[in-house]
Each structure stands twice: as C-alpha cells, then as structure tokens.
Write a structure and sequence with these properties.
Oligomer: single chain
Number of domains: 2
Organism: Maridesulfovibrio ferrireducens
Structural class: alpha/beta
Largest sheet: 7 strands, mixed
Distance between the termini: 81 Å
Protein name: Basic membrane protein A
CATH superfamily of the largest domain: Response regulator
Strand order of the largest sheet: 12-10-9-8-6-7-15
Order of helices and strands: HEHEHEHEEHEHEHEHEEHEEHEEHE
Domain ABC transporter substrate-binding protein PnrA-like: 28-305
Keywords: Signal
Helix content: 40-55%
Signal peptide: 1-23
Number of helices: 11
CATH class of the largest domain: Alpha Beta
CATH topology of the largest domain: Rossmann fold
Number of strands: 15
Length: 357
Amino acid sequence: MRKLMIMVIVAAMSVMMATVAFADAKKKVKVGFVYISPVADAGYSYAQDQGRLAIDKLPYVESSFVESVAEGTDSERVVLNFARKGYDVIFGTSFGYMDPMVKVSKKFPNVAFMHCSGFKTTPNMTNYFGRMYQARYLTGMVAGMMSKSNIIGYVAAFPIPEVIRGINAFTLGARAVNPKATVRVVWTKTWYDPALEKDAAISLLDMGADVITQHQDSPGPQEAAQERGKYSIGYNSDMARLAPKSHLTAAVWNWAPLFTNVVEQVRDGVWQGNESLWWGMDQGVVDIAPFGSMVPQNVQDKVNAAKAEIVAGNNAIFVGPLKNQAGKVIIPAGQTLDDPKLLGMSWFVEGVVGNTE
C-alpha cells in the first residue's frame, strides 16, 4: 500500500512538473510582424509597428519584425522563417502577402496567422482590418469644407476594394457638406514609393486641387501640398509634423486594441482561425488625428458631431440612395450595404473623377 502511494505521488509530481514546464514554455507569446515598407516613415508600417510596440510592453509578449518586405516570394520566405523559429502568431500586414501566408499556414497548423485586409482563410489563418472608411468619411468632410476650388486630389495605391471603399467614403463625406466637391483619383500602382506618390500629388495640384489626400504609405503627397501652399489630409498616422503648414487632419490607425485581443486569445488557447476581425471607430482601431490650427472651430464641431454619430452606430455611411459615377442608383433609399458588399466594393460613387482600373 505504501509503495502504491509513493508511485501515485511520484506520478502526480511528474504531471505537475510537466504542466509547469509547459506553462514556462508558453509564458512568452512570440509574435512576428512582416511589413511592406520602412517603419520609420510615419506611414502604414509605422502605424502597424506602433501597435506592435504596444503589445511588446505586455509581460507575456516577445515580438519581432521584418520591414520593407516585397509582396510575393520574398514575403513567403520571411513568413516561413518566423514559423520555423517557433513564433506563435505571425501578422502579415499587406494585401499581397495573402497567398504566401495561405501556403505557409498549411505547413504549420499550430501557428496563428493573421493577414491584414485580405479575404482568404485556412483553419489557422484569418484576416484582420479596421473600418477605415469611417475615418475617411470624416476627413472627407474636412476636405469638403476647406476646399475653395471644389477639386480634391486623392493619390491612391491599387484599385482593390479596400482602397475603392475608402475613396467612396471620403467622397461621400466631402459631398455631404459640399455638394459641388469632386474627388480626382490618380493611381500609382504601388504601396510605397515616396517620389512617385509626390509626383502624383503634384499632377493633381496642377489640375486645380487645393486639398490632397492619399491611400499611400509615405508622406510624399503631404510634402507636395505644403510646397504648393495647399492643404493636405494624411493617412495611417498623424503627419502634422511632416507638413505642419498644410496638414488639416489624418485618418489614422490604432492597432493596439486588436493586437492585444489576438495575443490574449492565443495565450489563453481560445484563438479561432475562422473568426475574421473588422473593428471600427467604436473599438478604437480607427480615428482621425487632431485638427490643424487652420481648421475653423465650426468645421471641427461639425466633424466631431458626425464622429459621435458613427461611434454610436447611428451613421453607417453607405446608406441609400447612393449613385455611381454614371448617376445610376446603386443603393436604393433605405438600404445599407452589408459587410460582404463593402468588402467587395468595385465601383465609384457619384463625385469621383477617375476609373477603377
């Protein structure tokens, strides 16, 4: 009997030791980030990295990143390297990382793969994004009220739903306060090329635009606007320090709440690979930057009132009747675009000058 008790105690101690060892092994959640552009440029990757720095302060997180990773085979190599090194969560922050991440995720079923802005999933890979169109609408209001020429320039990267949706929301905001406003779009077909982005902004300024905004990763368009004595609206982060004389506000990201949610779920063993995250202004993932000193108080008040409506869920933005560029009603009165249609948006609203190609 005594021998049996000793065996039971030893067995119990072995189980406890194994549990403690496992707990120690998982004390740190290793999180890897893959960025499309440099983190120091105040743009898209900078905003993502601010979220990484926020979770890196958590006692159970150990993070790392690789910047300026091209979409395609190069990104597959970087993602694969993180997985092989035993990272628990890998964030791929650019749309073009989607297919490479799908491929790698199938080889590492115990790793959580988070892809930004895409639509493909696997059992252990899902998507995350923010409802940036809400902030775009508000910055569009600012542009519409500040423009004197009624021509607003938009430097855009690629004609994918994410970018088209933002252009449309911005235009709806501008025309809600200034029905004469038009938004001219120039495509650069690149996420990050400061010189090309600046040249695109200059071409819009030459067309008579007196406010420039963008869906690009660098502050090049902001610099062009300031050099011409015109206004600018930034993207990704507050770009006021880079163009203080022209910067009205910016549509900004705050990834910390979403990243924290993901790593907590992974740590607790409850992360679900089939649950895409698309958080909005009410959850703090998107916002607008502080207004520049040149923005009148009445403009600020009107935009802040609209922001409160969005946060409260009383302004879905894409609510009918809405027309496309040809003047055809696409969203009938009383109808609201649901998420699948928002995520697949491929047409421009009335007021946009440009094509979706």
